[in-house]
Amino acid sequence: MPAKALPFILLQGFLFGSTLIASRFAVGQYQPTTYIGMRLVLASLVHLGIYLVASRRRPWPRNLGLWRHAAVLGVFGTAIPMTGIVTSLQYQSAGLTAVLLTAGPALTVLMANFALQDETLTPRKGAGVALALGGALLLIVLGESGLPDVSRASPVGYALVLLAMFSASVTTVYARKFMRGCDAFDVASVRMFTAALAIMPLSILLVGFDLSGVNAQGYFALVYAALVGTFLGMMLAFYNIKRFGATASAMPVYVIPVVSGILGALLLGEKITAGMAVGMGLIAAGIALANQRARG
Hints:
This protein has helices spanning 6-26, 32-53, 64-88, 94-100, 104-115, 123-142, 155-178, 184-207, 216-244, 246-250, 256-267, 274-291. The protein is mainly α. Helix 2 runs antiparallel to helix 8 and helix 3 packs antiparallel against helix 7.
């Protein structure tokens, strides 16, 4: 992974980590799919506004191939992972969810090794990912929840995170393989539109649309998540895939647990247990090993 990718990885990790905290707070006031659908709709409106204001410099995307590929990202890379991650926050802390997501790069790197010619799985990289993955597996073995009033996490939370990271890993490799020449903003826009169309109608049909329990802080969390995590975060994620590769683009998940763990403890009273601390230590060691350059 090139050293110049590090600032982008850290920024993406912060954007998604802080958004997890906003989402953890929001699930106490919204139905998860209502919250996700509204996030996607708000982010889509921002994209649409940019197209309207800068119509001469940035015309509406008309390439059918781009729409087809970006729609795949919208459903399998945004709608499904976002639903799994946000819903898991009903069963466990944001910090624990973030740590579990560190299993994602193992899947991404393995898939990339078979699907992409420039993403070879070296012994050093494989050992680093395995070490980081061990930190996440430790949390599952210990049954940590990270919540102040829950002793053990529900298996439902684990299953939802597993579904989210598998779907995201598949689409990360897909984007790297088929969409290198696509404009990042156009892809992010179509991705948001299709994800919103997939989630919002189903949410209204299945759970309704009740905002009676939402206060001012809940609306702030929604707007923050829509603009920071969904609009800026998704654009940066695709940029990192396109510029630095599938492996480098997976590394922000190692930053997210640190951000969400600290912010969760400070803002939401979530616990950082000894097991979580050991898990984070293993993750940090795995990052260092995976990114260490081979000597001479």
